[in-house]
C-alpha cells in the first residue's frame, strides 16, 4: 500500500447466531477508511490508521437485543478511528492513539449513565478496567469485524496452491466464553488472468483436549463435539486488497451456533 494514501472499503456482513432457543439474524454495512503510515522506526510494526466512516445495522430480528446492541455500538464508537501497529503475525500489537480513545470514552460513559443508568453499570465497569490494561484492550479490538478480516492473513506467506503445509493461529470463541481456539491454517496463492493475486485461506480447529473440555463446560454438554471453521478468499493487486470474502462458523452441540459472512470491496 502507498504510504499516506486513503483506501476506502465497503463491508457487508450477514450473520446468524443461536443460543439455546434464541435465534438471531443480522445484517450490517460498514464503510472504512484505511491509511498505511509506514513502519514504526523503533519497533518492527506496520502502522495503519483505520477509520470507520459509517456503520449501519440493517437488520436485527431479536427485539430484546436492540438495547444491548445500541449500548455496544456506542462503546465501540470510541474506536471509530484507530492508529495501530501490526506485527509480523498480523496481530494488533500496539495502539498509538490511546489518549484520543480515552477522551472519547468520557463522553460515551456520560451518555450510557444518562440513557441506561442501570443496564449500563456492568458495561461501564468492565470497560473502565479494560482501558487501564492495553493488552486486554488489544485483545478486545482484534475482533472488530473489519480489523479481524482485513488482517487475518497479514504476514502469512502463501503456499503454492494445493500445498498441505499449515500454520498455527489462535482465535477466540464467538460466544464470549473467553476460550482460545487453536486453528490449523493453510494459505495458498495463485495469479489470475487479470494480473492480480488470489489468496485462499482455510482453517480448522486443532483438537485440543483442554480446550474441548472448557467448551463442553461452557455449553453444559459433556458429549458434544465442537466445530470451528474459517474460510476466506482475498484478491490483491500489488498487496492492495481489492476484495475479500470471509466466513467464520462455530458450533457447540445442538444449542450454540454462530455463522458470519463478510464481503469487503475496495471502493474505486
Order of helices and strands: EEEHEEHHHHEEEEHEEE
Backbone structural class = alpha+beta
Shape: globular
Distance between the termini: 15 Å
The overall strand count is 12
Unreliable sequence segments = none
How much of the residues is beta strand, in percent?
over 45%
Helix content, binned percent: 10-25%
- Name the quaternary structure: single chain
Largest sheet: 12 strands, mixed
Q: State the helix count.
A: 6
What's the mean pLDDT score?
88
Radius of gyration: 19 Å
Describe the fold and architecture.
The protein has 268 residues and is an alpha+beta fold. It has six helices and twelve strands. The chain has helices at 66-76, 98-115, 121-130, 134-141, 145-150, 209-219; strands at residues 6-19, 22-39, 46-60, 81-86, 92-95, 159-160, 167-172, 180-191, 197-205, 227-237, 240-252, 256-266. Strands 1, 2, 3, 4, 5, 6, 7, 8, 9, 10, 11 and 12 form a twelve-stranded mixed β-sheet that branches. A hairpin with a 5-residue loop joins strand 8 (180-191) and strand 9 (197-205). The mean pLDDT is 88.
In short:
With 268 residues, this protein is of the alpha+beta class.
Helix and strand arrangement:
Blueprint: E1 6-19, E2 22-39, E3 46-60, H1 66-76, E4 81-86, E5 92-95, H2 98-115, H3 121-130, H4 134-141, H5 145-150, E6 159-160, E7 167-172, E8 180-191, E9 197-205, H6 209-219, E10 227-237, E11 240-252, E12 256-266
Amino acid at each position: 500500500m502507498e504510504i499516506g494514501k486513503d483506501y476506502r472499503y465497503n463491508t457487508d456482513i450477514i450473520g446468524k447466531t443461536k443460543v439455546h432457543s434464541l435465534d438471531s439474524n443480522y445484517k450490517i454495512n460498514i464503510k472504512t477508511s484505511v491509511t498505511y503510515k509506514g513502519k514504526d522506526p523503533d519497533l518492527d510494526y506496520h502502522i495503519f490508521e483505520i477509520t470507520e466512516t459509517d456503520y449501519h445495522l440493517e437488520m436485527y430480528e431479536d427485539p430484546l437485543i436492540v438495547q444491548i446492541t445500541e449500548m455496544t455500538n456506542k462503546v465501540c464508537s470510541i474506536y471509530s478511528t484507530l492508529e495501530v501497529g501490526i506485527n509480523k503475525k498480523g496481530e494488533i500489537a500496539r495502539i498509538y492513539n490511546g489518549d484520543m480513545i480515552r477522551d472519547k470514552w468520557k463522553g460515551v460513559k456520560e451518555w450510557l449513565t444518562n440513557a441506561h443508568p442501570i443496564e449500563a453499570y456492568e458495561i461501564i465497569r468492565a470497560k473502565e478496567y479494560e482501558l487501564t490494561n492495553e493488552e486486554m484492550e488489544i485483545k478486545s479490538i482484534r475482533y472488530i469485524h473489519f480489523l479481524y478480516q482485513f488482517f487475518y492473513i497479514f504476514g502469512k506467506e502463501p503456499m503454492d496452491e494445493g500445498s498441505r503445509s499449515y500454520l498455527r493461529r489462535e482465535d477466540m470463541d464467538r460466544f464470549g466464553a473467553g476460550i482460545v481456539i487453536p486453528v490449523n491454517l493453510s494459505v495458498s496463492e495463485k495469479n489470475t488472468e487479470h494480473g492480480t493475486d488470489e489468496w485462499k485461506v482455510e482453517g480448522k480447529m486443532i483438537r485440543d483436549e483442554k480446550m474441548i473440555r472448557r467448551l463442553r463446560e461452557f455449553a453444559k454438554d459433556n458429549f458434544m463435539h465442537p466445530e470451528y471453521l474459517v474460510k476466506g478468499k482475498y484478491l490483491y493487486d500489488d498487496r492492495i486488497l481489492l476484495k475479500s470474502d470471509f466466513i467464520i462458523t462455530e458450533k457447540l452441540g445442538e444449542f450454540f451456533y454462530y455463522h458470519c459472512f463478510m464481503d469487503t470491496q475496495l471502493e474505486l
